[in-house]
Amino acid sequence: MKTGKTRIFLTGGAGMVGRNIQEHPAAAGCEFFAPDIAELDLFNFEAVKDYILKVKPDFIVHAAGRVGGIQANMAHPVAFLLENLDMGRNLVWAAKQCGVKRLINLGSSCMYPRNAPNPLKEELVLQGELEPTNEGYAIAKVVVSRLCSYISRENPEFRYKTLIPCNLYGRWDKFSPEHSHMIPAVIRKLHAAKLNGDKSVEIWGDGTARREFMYAGDVAGCIHRAITDFDTMPELMNVGLGEDHSVNDYYRTVAEVVGYTGAFTHDLTKPAGMARKLVDASRVNAWGWKPAVSLKDGIAAAYEFFKSNYGDNK
Question: What pTM does this model have?
Fold first, then answer.
C-alpha cells in the first residue's frame, strides 16, 4: 500500500546511527524498512536480494556494521574486516542487481591514512598506510566505498554515494567495555568511579591525542538532508564538526556532566591510536549543512540515556 512517504531500506536499524535516523523529526516523511538479524541476514547475498525485491525501496541507507573501540579492533581484526566487507558488498551489489538507483553508504574516518595531514580531506583516502589498531575495519570500509564509486562510474543511472562521519556518540550507543568507543566508555567509567568514590581514574596514553566526536543525532540529521537533497550531495563527503578536542578534554567534560570530582592518572604503556583525526568539513559546509548539538549537551543526552538503560548500579 502506497503511503506517499519515501521508502527507505535501512540496514543497522537497531544500532546507534540507525536508531537516531528513525527517531529524528525528519523521519516522519519516511517509511522505514529496518529488519533485524532474525528477519534478514546481511551475510546472505540471496536473502538480501530477495528482501530488496520485496520492499522495493526508493533509497537504501547502509548503516550496519561491526563497530568498536581500540580494544575490540585489536582483539578481533578478522571479524572487523570480514563482517564489514561481507555486509557492505552484499548490500551494495544486491542493490545494483535489483535496480535500486539511490544508495547512501556510511564510511568511517578510519579510512584515512594514519599520517595524513589534518584536517582530513576526502581525496586523501588510499593515499597512505592505515592506522594499525583498526586496519581491518578501515580496509573493509574503503572497499565498500570504492565499490559504490565504481558502480556509479560504470552506470551513472546508479547514484551510490558515501558519507564519512567523524567519531560518533550519543543515544543508543554501546556502553559495554568490550564494544564501546571512547565517549561511552568514559561515561561508564566515570559514572562507576563516582558511585564507588574513586579518588582517581586512569587514562590510556598521555591524553593529548586529539579526537573529533559528533552527536549521533546530528549525523542522522545530515543523512535525512542527504535523502531530501540527494542530487546535490557530493559522491564522497565527510560529515564532521571541523574541530576537535584532546582525550583529556573529553574526560574533563564527561566528569563535569557526570559529577565526578576525582583526579586523572595516565598509563603511558597503553596504546592511544592516531595522534589526531580531524575530518575536513569544508565540503559538507559548502553543501549547506552544519551540526547543531554542542559537546556538553550531547554528552548530557548520552549520559541520561546510559542511566535510563543501564541503571545507577552499573
Answer: 0.91
3-state secondary structure of 294: coil
- Per-domain boundaries in the chain: 6-172+213-242+278-293
Please tell me what DSSP assigns to residue 133. Answer: G
CA distance 274 to 99: 40
**What pLDDT is stored for residue 270 in this prediction?**
87
The CA distance from 231 to 244, in Å, is 30
Q: What is the CATH number of domain 6-172+213-242+278-293?
A: 3.40.50.720
Cell of 211: 579526537
Catalytic residues: 137
Q: How far apart are CA 259 and CA 140, in angstroms?
A: 39
Q: For residue range 134-179, what is the model confidence (pLDDT) as tens digits?
A: 999 999 999 999 999 999 999 999 999 999 999 999 999 989 876 6
Q: Which of 175, 170, 150, 172 is nearest to 160 (CA)?
A: 150
